[in-house]
Amino acid sequence: MIRDIRRLGIFDIKNILLKKEITATELTKIYIEQAYRYNPEINAFITISEESALIDAKKSDEILSKSPDRIRPLEGIPIAIKDIFTTRNIRTTCASRILKNFVPPFDATVVNRLKDAGAIIFGKLNMDEFAMGSSNENSCFGPVKNPFDPERSPGGSSGGSAAAVAAGLTPASLGTDTGGSIRQPAAFCGIIGMKPSYGRVSRYGMIAFASSLDQAGPMTKSVRDCAILLESIAGNDPKDSTTLTTPVPHYTEWIEQMPENPSIGILDPDYFKGINEEVLNAYLETVKLFQRLKIPIIEIELPHIKYAVAVYYLIATSEASSNLARYDGVKYGYRTHEFKNLKDMYKRTREEGFGDEVKRRIILGTFALSSGYYDAFFRKASLVRRLITSDFYKAFSKVSTILMPVTPDVAFKLKEKIDDPLSMYLSDIFTIPVNLAGLPAISLPAGLNKENLPIGVQFIGRPFDEHNLLSLAALYERETDCMKILNGVRL
Amino acid sequence: MSKIEIDDRLLDHLCNLSMLKINKEDYPRFLSQIQKILDYMAMLDEVNTDGVVPMFGGIEFPPVIRMDIPQEPLTRSQAIANAPSEKEGLFGIPKIIE
Fold it and tell me: Chain A residues with CB inside 8 Å of B31's CB?
């Protein structure tokens, strides 16, 4: 049983804990030991929170052994999360030099909710600095390696989460998705990643990148685990006024049933010109699968999505330039050692504390918001954002779900795109439109290419329709046995 | 939007606005990368946005309000625990009045 622990997800682990085949403490020790053993090869962990994890595990063991009526949904399950979520008394770096020694005095709401559900937070996972990147190469702790091929990127920005889940170093994880940062690494690492609707999950304590786009979501090895995690973290939070009060459906029940009146929207192949042939074929195979299942397939149009990357890199950078103004070396975080005066201290602190990509985005955002350029750049992007969103709403009047590839290609090699930011940005072309419109979407494995690299496919849903999206994803998972691709993991 | 040329002067100005410093030897690299991105963004010029209302939020719904109930705040020592410089329980900064 212990031999196969790396293959297990949340649901499987819960079962062995309930059957008392293992204790939460033994399990946590195994995950911590694995993290130490494999991290030199994969670089997925930034921090391993051994001490607090073992204290939490002991509490779970008490409940598991003495109070079966108090057992919670994630009781005793070790989980490592992206290092963007603040964790009380556990270092939270956002993979930035500027926060390298930051120990928050509070938990993010999602962390609180995981803990309240009984989860044991045992590690903080690597990512692109401030979630800015698509390859994980922008981390001040160095890049994460893709478990299918260590020469390749695991994707980003939640690359540490995706790689750790695929390699079995955590049963599941939480990531964040501003322009594809859950779905793209999930696709590159052969796992499931879900970006909920904007407003479904609290952003309190999630270090801000672009506030109108950021959402936290599950990264898992099964649709069931995805439903379990989303159910635990979703819902209104008084500390985030953008979280809706709409009740959270029982996602774990929805995955047991068929989606309500499903119909699938597909785009004309012209939209996919220039994408990798095997990625396109995997997408077309998915369309055929739903045809066989007698789910209506309807062609839709999204005429403005070709502008999404341009819109996104104006809006996200503008919001980032404002959000990152707080890092000034005064209240917390890094401060430069040599400076002439206060202004010089700010400038040098930020020069030394931020990496190149973060600086580039702050500069671009400052430009788009600055006097003389605001109307032509930030405002124009906000207008086109409306058109992109309207396209989606029109499509959703005809179909319940839109099917799209996740990425134009499979995982690229490390260093391949790092000197060409625009080419890196364009790799997010199919994920970005979803964030601009605030929609939920789930990325699922759609097989391996000839080089044994995972391909992903995404289902995009109507706002707050995560339950139907998960139900359709569960159907897809049953029909395709898509998670068997994790047998291809080389680590 | 038309064509925007980003040069040393504009980059100086943006660094100043955003309290950033970039090494002079890195200027050519930053300028060419940002120029390439801005050139790409010029495609937005072709979109007719007459009569369109800008979208600034993630999803549009009425703001969710809550009762104004006082919560337990951080203690002074918790609030200051991460400060790079602390003096007598206060955040320390360099002298600002010469």
Answer: none
